[in-house]
Description:
alpha+beta; three-stranded antiparallel sheet; two-stranded antiparallel sheet; 2 helices
Amino acid sequence: MISYKTNTLGNVICISTSIFWRKNYRRHAAKFVVKHQGFTLLELLVVIVIIGLLAAYVGPKYFAQLGKSEVTVARAQIEAFEKALDTYRLDMGRYPTTEEGMGALLVKPTETPGWNGPYLKKNVPQDPWGHPYLYRSPGTKTDFEILSYGKDGEPGGEGENADISNQ
Length: 167
């Protein structure tokens, strides 16, 4: 025996069979037409082309924003170093020398009373492009200068290659 249920449109929802299915097959055979639905190769290719076009349009805009975010991260890190250096100055009465560098924010320089560091929670990181930050004291315009040469690691440049400084 074959039992089945249909929905309001007449489509078969559930089919169960028993030992007697051959006996009743011809009576119910017309109701068991199964429709195989799927995508054609052409439809799949059209979808892949559309996805490719979207990726080609969005990709360059995404990577342009990535470069801007690296510059923003470098500026934020330089500002954090400035705050740590100002705290060092309040304790020591001076900024670290160029020779001491920003390492003086982490390790107490020899013969320096009043050092209450470390002034940074972690080691001095490299800039977002993997180059070390440069520290000079005195700087060209202020008491100290913190400098990143940008993406290319060379002085000067434009865009992502431009120098980033606290001055």
